[in-house]
Amino acid sequence: MSTKNILFVAALALVATIVYHSLTGGQTEAEYVSGIQKKRTEKEEFMHTSDQSPFGKERKNFKTLNYFKPDTKYRIDARLVSIANKKMITIPTSDGKENHYLEYAYAEFNFQNTPCRLLILEITDDTPYKGSLFLAFADSTSANETYGGGRYLDVKKVPGASTVVLDFNEAYNPYCAYAENYSCPFPPKENILSVAIRAGEKKYHE
Q1: Which CA distances in Å does 19 have to 13, 96, 109, 135, 199?
Q2: For residue range 126-145, what is the model confidence (pLDDT) as tens digits?
Q3: Which residue from 58, 75, 85, 155 has the fewest beta carbons nearer than 10 Å?
Q4: What's the average model confidence in pLDDT over 56-81?
Q5: How buried is 124 (Cβ within 10 angstroms: 0-12 exposed, 13-18 middle, 19+ buried)?
Q6: Rounded distance between C-alpha atoms, residue 187 and residue 200, angstroms
Q7: How many C-beta atoms surround the C-beta of residue 3 within 10 A?
Q8: Half-sphere exposure (Cβ direction) of 204: Cα atoms closer than 13 Å
Q9: 3-class SS at 164?
Q10: Cα gap 20→76, rounded to integer Å
């Protein structure tokens, strides 16, 4: 093999390594999957034993949560697009009320050859969560494989960042998916994706 070909193969290997580490956060795939499974086990324990469980006194009847198998293709590095003139928006909730959030930024990415754009919101209510980010989304699995009211994804605020990691393997259901006595914001219309996000938590009630 010529020196030129050797350098080309080495460059491809380097690119593949960089892409792989970006998908797994610097972990091996086994470590990444193990971390996801650990978080799921801890959540199961919380649902079954904690006084703060959404199942309340009925948690003795709690059944196991349902999940898609972890898949690194659903850990996405999205482009973070700032919003020049941010405004407050109103989001309806499952109990007929409304929540108010401040626009924060858009997360843009391509998935299954489809451009996707999700609106990330900032919580402004005077609560312990003030200043944290909120991301709710729905996709083509909603009301079929996954909860019809959409799912949530935690997003970390990093001032000055131009990208954001959206790990849909960690997508979770709002408490309304388990009990009706909660007030859960629906995804804004901008966040209804046409693609299927077969990652994270599935429906609890079949």
Answers
A1: 10, 44, 15, 25, 20
A2: 889 999 999 999 999 999 99
A3: 85
A4: 94
A5: middle
A6: 16
A7: 7
A8: 20
A9: strand
A10: 11
Separation of CA 67 from chain center: 13
Nearest-5° Cα angle at 164, 163 to 168: 145
Residue 171 falls within a domain, yes or no? yes
The reply to whether 134 falls in a domain is yes
Closest CA to 147 of 91, 187, 98, 107: 187
140-187: pLDDT as tens digits: 999 999 999 999 999 999 989 999 999 999 999 999 999 999 999 999
Nearest residue to 172 via CA among 56, 23, 66, 91: 66
Give the number of other CB atoms < 10 A from CB of residue 119: 21
Q: How many independent structural domains does the chain possess?
A: 1
Residue with more model confidence, 27 or 62: 62
Q: Indicate whether 196 belongs to any domain.
A: no
* In a domain? residue 108: yes
